[in-house]
Structures are given as C-alpha cells and as structure tokens.
C-alpha cells in the first residue's frame, strides 16, 4: 500500500518538535521548596522542576530539564514579577536565569582558591537587577541584566568557611543568616572583606532564615525576631522553622507542619495546621498556600495542586505492560550506609510507584510507613493479570526481605527464602517467562563470607501452592546476581561482582517444574568476557546475547547451543577510531542494554550516559549525556522501550526521563512514514533530516524535481537520516526532493517530499 507524506508548511513547529518535544519527564513534583506569585498564577519550585498553577482556571504547566531547564536537584528559587525573571539555584552550584527571552545557564560560581566545600546554592533573593546568592562559601551579588557574578564575600575565618544559609538586600545593606549569627554589611568598597562584616550581639547564634521588606525578619529553629536592628521583637514557641516570608506587612512563618501568619505588629492573624511536613508558604489573593514535602501545593481546604507524577524522583528499575508503568525506588550500590547492600533506612522506605494508564498511584503499604524497611530493587506485574504485582525487598532484615505480592496496589503476602538467616537469602530480581512462570533470583546464604555472598540461586513460584520452591534449583558460585532475562526457556542471569561474577545461562527446556533435563553454563573471563563481573544482558532480534560487563561489552551468538559447548567464546565489537581498530566500550562499566524493534541497541555506561547503536554496534547513532540532553545524570540504571510508541524510558536515581524514539513496531512493511523537520530551513535547523516508519530493510532513492538521482541508500531498523548531501558529498540546492522507498522484497512502497531552504 502506498503512503504519501504531505508537506507541512509551518516549519517552525516541526523544527521545534524535532529538537525539543522529543523529551518529557516522569519527575515527581510533590516536594515544593518555594512558592512565588506572578499575576494570575503561582510558581512552585520542586526538586527537579518548576510548575505553574493558575487558580482561576485550575491549569497546571510544568518546566523541567525536558523542556528548558538545564539541571536537576533544585535547592533555591526566587522570582521577580516586575521583570518576569526567575532564578533557579542547583545543588551543583549552577543557576538558571528564566526570562521572557529564554532560559540561560550560569555556571561560573565564584569559588575561592582552595575551596573544596559544597557548591550548593542555599538561597536566592532578587532585588531589582540584583540577586543575592547564599552558598557554602559565603554570599555573592549576581547581576541579572549582565548575567554575571559581581561582589563576593568569602565567609572564612581561621581557614574554615562559614555557610550562608540565606541573605537579603535592604536599603543597600546585605543581611545574612549563618550558624554563628546574623551578619550584615553595606554594599560598598569593603563588602568583599569578611573581617569588616558586623554581627550584632543580639543576633549571635544559629540562624536559618532572613527576609525583609519594610521590616527585617530573622529566624532560628525556634523563634523569629522582627523589626529593625535597633528595635527587635521576638515571636517564639515554634518546633522547627522551615521558612519565613515578609509579605504585604505580614510575617508568614512556616513551622514543621503549621503555618503562622502575624501582622507587622506581632499579632497572630492566622494559624493553619497542615498536618504533614511542609517547606514554605505564601498568601495569594488572601488565600494561604503551603508547599508540602509530599503533596505539592495545598490551599486552606487542603486541596492538592501539582502535576501528576511519581511519589518521588528516586528510581532504579522500571516495568511496563500495556499502558501501565511500575517504578522501583531501591538501589544496590549508591546508598550512604556502612554496607552497600543495606541502604540507610531513613531514605529507603519509599517503595514503588504505579502509573495505571491515567494517573500515578502510591500504594498505601508505603504511606507513612514506620516499621518495614523497603529497598525495592524490582517490581513487575503478572502479564496474565496485571492487577497482581510482585516486588523484591532487598533489605536484609528477616522481617522485611523477600518477595511481596500486591493486588490492586494493596498488600497480599510476603514470600521469603530460608528465613532462619537474618541476612542472607535476599530476593534480587523477578521475571515471567513465556508460559507465565515467575522466577526470582536470590542471593544465597554462605556463613563465613563477607558481603556480597559469592553464591546465588533462583526460585520458581508455584501458583497452585502460592509459594516459592522450598529449595533452589541449584546453587551457583556467582555472587550478587541481578534481575534475570528469560527467553525460550533459558534464564540469563548477570552477576556483577568481579571475582565471583559472570553470566549464568540456565536452560530448563521450557519445563520449569522438571529439573531432570536442565542444563546450565556460567560464562566468565575464560569465555572472553573482559572480567568475571557481568552487569546486564539483552537478547537482540537475531537471538544474539549482548552482555554488559564491568569492563566492556561482549556478544554471544546462538547462546542456547553455547550451553552445550565446552568453552564457548564471546565476541567484542571492533570499531575504527582515528584510523585504528578499537574495542567498543573497552574498560567501561555497562549498566543496561535494551534493543528496539529495529534491532538498534541502547547501552548505558556508568558515568557516560546512553549510546544508541546500529544493529551491529559498529556505529553510534546518538550519545545522550547529562550535558547534551535532558538526562538527569550520566548513570542510567534501567532502559525500557515501548515498541508501540517508540518511547524510550531512561531510569536514573534522580528521576525518569522519556525520549520519543524514531523506531516503533518495525516490520517487513512500512508503517506511518514521517519526515521531520520538513521543510528544512538552514537558518533554523542544521541537523539531519529523519525519516521514520520504514520497513526493517528499506531501499531509498532521493531525486530532485527533474527526476535526477541525488542520493541512494539502504536503511535498516525502521528509520533513516539524510544529511542533505548529494552523492558527491555536497549539500543539495534549495528545492523539492522526492524520496522513493521500497521494502526488501519490493512488495510495499512509500514516497515522501522534502522541501529544502538554504
């Protein structure tokens, strides 16, 4: 069937689509750090983005790294409605300047020579064309018009830096809250000289917040002082003050769970008990709004306003089924804890998040949980009944660890393995096979060894008895095994620890409950793996196994047959780099591998972002990093592809980012062929033209309006990119070009037009 692509005349929209709208975020907007007003809307700054709430219409819009911001981990924010300028401060010390003309990144934070402390922006206060920036080294004045730092004072005494928690400009004087008191200095020639700063004797002690309009307000954890320096009054009796704001002759004090509004005379006007942890508050059109830690914006009726999203940004693995998503929040390696496999309980009770196709759900099992510690490494639905979900809790405590069963996001049962041990037999990952058998990989017991234990096993779930097998199939001398991959009756289980790791291939011959005909093999360095530690595994459309290793990448062809071989050998991918043969990803730690329907590979490298490779791996199509894309960080812990839509989900510990890929449901025939951007205006776009919706193998001929051939190619994998050069390598002239396409056997054709404007 012939498919014709019409030229769309509004080229700016398609150019924008090609560059920007390919990304979207799955961030949490629950934890509101600051609230500011701007005419008919409120602006709320959260951990990974900003959202705009319009009380008059109920509309909510969001701004994140997916559509304009340059970073994640927001730590400070302020906004000036008079100039429509906002400034976002990040934990890494950079700033985003939001203006009507665009968003501009500033990274030249003025650190002193030898300063090795935190670069985190603690507080921002805008006053006209100046922004007062508080940080771990002291305080700086930022010129908003020039977008550059000016005067800076390094708060250093005796070789020790003192952090500025917040600062404000009033009557040409800067007031700063520090752990040792309120410090102030006029903006004059001696401003950068720390020894010339003054700390009033009445304001010595640990102060957290400062604000000012007609009056000054200073806050420590328990009390607020207000007025002028020569005449300060005190309001006390608070639990742990989080924020203070002077607004329309009112003092708004945000305590742990309550907001207190006082007049400038110190008389209490309003007290709002939110009943949960809050960060900040603001009065807008006479209505009090609070920024909560878990539910976005609250009004006084405790109605919640926020973009829909997961409960938290902390993410590790993702599962998909139909239009639903499940995200686990655990982490095996990076938690701040004495033992890497036992994360800090204070940050590990989050659980999992579920998108049911219309909204995000946070199960009651994890809400206000105070007893069970959760470090969930994996969560998957039952493909035959998605209302039933299983997850692994890796936390070692005997009352917490194991596999949990949920139904409609409500707890049903916990399954554990040899619970006589309070530490070992911990569930790692889960997988269903094609016959709907559920397997769990388990880190086994081995007294006398330090963690990680160098033996592992897996268990089969028996639905009729509602239990996992009492004994493992067998115990393998590989440690720290990961989530299994199951294809055609074979389990492929990576084990990442270098001395005890490898890739275990276990063929149960599609008879899961019968072990008599089972066969297995463990691939290690002797099988041409770079080292024994295997981190990830994926099977491509040619049934080749792609093996991610702690020090590189390998491919094993015909893996089922390799189980029967004495010494099967894997292959490296050799590419040409600077006219020299080089092994792809040599010495790099591979975190995850995913294969799209066109057989292209997405490979995440620890600290190196994500690479999009050609089917054979010899060509890098894209590399996405934190600096050149909206990725939250450069270590992507999971990649999932929705082959129906072409969307690629990148999971990081700082949140999930989604990329609209070019490949979806590739078959031997054409899909919905699309060319973009189109037309191609050189002044607006200088990249390649992309054609997607192609057959698995497509023969392409591009001609000019007179029928002369200007370019030909064979595209594999469902899409093609043209650099607008002719066969001599010269850019084509302005005009209309025709793309004539046939599939591999010539049974299906497609055509398209491309308009080029140089």
From TrEMBL:
InterPro entries found in the cross-reference section: PorZ_N, Secre_tail, WD40/YVTN_repeat-like_dom_sf, WD40_repeat_dom_sf
Sequence ranges assigned to domain PorZ N-terminal beta-propeller in this UniProt record: 44-188
Signal peptide: 1-18
The keyword Signal appears for this protein: yes
Keywords: Signal
Keyword Plastid applies: no
UniProt protein name: PorZ N-terminal beta-propeller domain-containing protein
The organism of origin for this protein: Epilithonimonas zeae
């Amino acid at each position: 069937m012939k498919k014709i692509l019409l030229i769309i005349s509004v080229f700016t929209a398609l150019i924008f689509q090609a560059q920007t709208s390919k990304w979207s975020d799955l961030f949490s907007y629950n934890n509101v750090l600051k609230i500011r007003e701007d005419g008919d809307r409120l602006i709320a700054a959260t951990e990974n983005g900003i959202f705009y709430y319009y009380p008059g219409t109920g509309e909510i819009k969001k701004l994140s790294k997916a559509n304009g911001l340059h970073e994640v981990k927001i730590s400070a924010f302020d906004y000036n409605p008079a100039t429509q300028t906002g400034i976002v401060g990040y934990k890494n010390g950079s700033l985003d300047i939001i203006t009507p003309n665009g968003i501009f990144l500033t990274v030249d934070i003025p650190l002193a020579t030898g300063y090795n402390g935190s670069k985190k922006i603690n507080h921002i206060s805008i006053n006209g064309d100046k922004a007062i920036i508080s940080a771990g080294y002291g305080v700086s004045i930022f010129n908003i018009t020039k977008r550059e730092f000016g005067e800076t004072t390094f708060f250093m005494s005796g070789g020790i830096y003192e952090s500025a928690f917040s600062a404000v400009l009033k009557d040409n004087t800067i007031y700063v809250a520090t752990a040792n008191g309120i410090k102030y200095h006029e903006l004059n020639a001696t401003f950068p000289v720390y020894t010339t700063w003054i700390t009033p004797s009445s304001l010595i002690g640990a102060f957290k917040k400062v604000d000012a309009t007609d009056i000054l307000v200073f806050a420590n954890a328990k009390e607020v002082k207000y007025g002028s320096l020569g005449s300060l009054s005190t309001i006390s009796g608070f639990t742990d003050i989080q924020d203070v704001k002077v607004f329309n002759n009112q003092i708004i004090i945000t305590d742990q769970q309550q907001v207190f509004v006082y007049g400038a005379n110190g008389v209490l006007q309003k007290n709002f008990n939110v009943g949960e942890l809050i960060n900040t508050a603001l009065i807008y059109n006479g209505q009090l709004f609070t920024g909560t830690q878990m539910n976005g914006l609250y009004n006084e009726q405790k109605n919640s306003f926020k973009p829909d999203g997961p409960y938290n940004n902390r993410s590790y693995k993702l599962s998909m089924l139909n239009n639903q998503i499940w995200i686990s929040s655990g982490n095996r390696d990076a938690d701040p804890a004495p033992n890497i496999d036992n994360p800090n309980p204070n940050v590990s009770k989050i659980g999992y998040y579920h998108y049911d196709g219309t909204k995000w759900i946070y199960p009651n099992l994890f809400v206000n949980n105070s007893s069970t510690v959760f470090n969930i490494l994996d969560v998957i639905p039952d493909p035959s009944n998605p209302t039933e979900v299983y997850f692994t809790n890796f936390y070692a405590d005997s009352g917490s660890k194991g596999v949990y069963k949920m139904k409609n996001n409500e707890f049903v049962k916990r399954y554990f393995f040899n619970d006589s041990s309070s530490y070992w037999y911990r569930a790692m990952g889960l997988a269903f096979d094609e016959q709907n058998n559920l397997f769990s990989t388990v880190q086994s017991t081995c007294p006398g060894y330090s963690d990680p234990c160098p033996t592992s096993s897996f268990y089969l779930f028996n639905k009729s008895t509602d239990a996992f097998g009492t004994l493992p199939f067998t115990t393998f001398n590989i440690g720290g095994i990961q989530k299994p991959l199951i294809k055609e009756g074979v389990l492929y289980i990576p084990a990442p620890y270098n001395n005890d790791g490898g890739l275990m291939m276990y063929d149960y011959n599609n008879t899961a409950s019968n072990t008599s005909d089972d066969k297995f093999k463990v691939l290690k360095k002797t099988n041409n793996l770079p080292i024994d530690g295997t981190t990830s595994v994926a099977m491509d459309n040619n049934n080749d196994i792609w093996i991610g290793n702690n020090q590189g990448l390998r491919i094993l062809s015909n893996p089922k047959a390799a189980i029967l071989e004495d010494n099967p050998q894997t292959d490296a991918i050799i590419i040409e780099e600077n006219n020299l043969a080089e092994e792809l990803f040599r010495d790099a730690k591979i975190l995850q591998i995913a294969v799209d329907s066109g057989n292209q590979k997405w490979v995440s490298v620890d600290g190196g972002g994500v690479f999009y490779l050609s089917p054979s791996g010899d060509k890098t199509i894209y590399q996405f990093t934190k600096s050149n894309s909206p990725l939250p960080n450069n270590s992507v812990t999971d990649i999932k592809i929705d082959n129906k839509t072409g969307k690629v989900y990148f999971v990081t510990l700082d949140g999930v980012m989604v990329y609209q890929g070019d490949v979806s449901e590739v078959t031997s025939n054409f899909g919905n062929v699309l060319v973009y951007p189109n037309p191609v205006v050189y002044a607006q776009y200088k990249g390649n033209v992309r054609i997607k919706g192609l057959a698995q193998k497509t023969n392409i001929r591009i001609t000019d309006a007179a029928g002369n051939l200007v370019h030909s190619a064979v595209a594999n994998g469902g899409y093609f990119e043209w650099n607008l050069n002719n066969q001599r390598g010269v850019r084509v002239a302005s005009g209309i070009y025709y793309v004539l396409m046939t599939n591999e056997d010539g049974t299906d054709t497609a055509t398209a037009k491309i308009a080029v404007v140089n």
